[in-house]
Amino acid sequence: MAAALVLAAGLRVVRKVVVAAGPRGVQARGAAGVTDGNEVAKAQQAAPGGAAPTIFSRILDRSLPADILYEDHQCLVFRDVAPQAPVHFLVIPKKPIPRISQAEEEDQQLLGHLLLVAKKIAKVEGLADGYRLVINDGRLGAQSVYHLHIHVLGGRQLLWPPG
User: Fold this and answer.
1) C-alpha distances in angstroms, 58 versus 61, 74, 141?
2) d(CA 82, CA 51)
3) What backbone torsions phi and psi does residue 31 show, to the nearest 5 degrees?
4) How far is residue 64 from each of residues 11, 49, 111, measured CA to CA in Å?
5) Where are the beta strands (DSSP E) in 7-163?
6) How far apart are CA 135 and CA 122, in angstroms?
7) pLDDT digits (tens, 9 = 90+) for 11-57
8) Residues 115, 150: contact at Cβ < 8 Å?
9) pLDDT tops 80 at residue 113
10) Coil, strand, or helix at residue 2?
């Protein structure tokens, strides 16, 4: 495993890029926990639903590529493109629910299924020592994509309180 330091434009810190060869081939990833600070700004500007397709709907219809870890008839799981932990993946429903606050009683089984899939993939990803599930809701919750999604983060000691 090799590591390199790259100074990326717009970042307030030096971003560490880890290049690793593994079962999925050679991958380059930003260092876990390093962010450009734009997630809140993105959430402030995000459209809270509407006719335009989201990045997640484009991943679901395969018009955008993703590192898919799991799929069934109700959900899709893929790695986050800007990981905030050594392991960071998203679990999204195929049903377009913009926000958790807009889920209905009829979504109860689906929401439970998403949590059980998160647990299953966390185990596959080697997170036996623990992990965190995060659902952002709305502008003040820093939701930047209006398609319900569960972040699963692990592989390091997570701090409290978050945010």
Assistant:
1) 5, 16, 23
2) 26
3) -65, 140
4) 25, 19, 24
5) 15-22, 25-30, 68-71, 75-79, 87-93, 131-134, 150-154
6) 16
7) 222 233 333 333 333 333 444 444 445 767 766 666 676 557 899 99
8) yes
9) yes
10) strand
pLDDT mean over 63-71: 98
In the structure encoding, which two tokens stand for residue 155, read together? 């592989």
Query: Per the omega criterion (within 30 degrees of 0), is the bond before 161 cis?
Result: yes
Which among 73, 88, 113, 149 is annotated as catalytic? 149
- Helical H runs in 1-128? 39-45, 55-60, 108-124
Catalytic annotation present for 151: no
Read off the tokens for 143.
């939701």
Extract the tokens encoding 154.
Answer: 């692990």
Residue holding tokens 């309180």?
Answer: 161
pTM beyond 0.85: the answer is: no
Q: Which residues pair with 152 in a beta bridge?
A: 89, 133
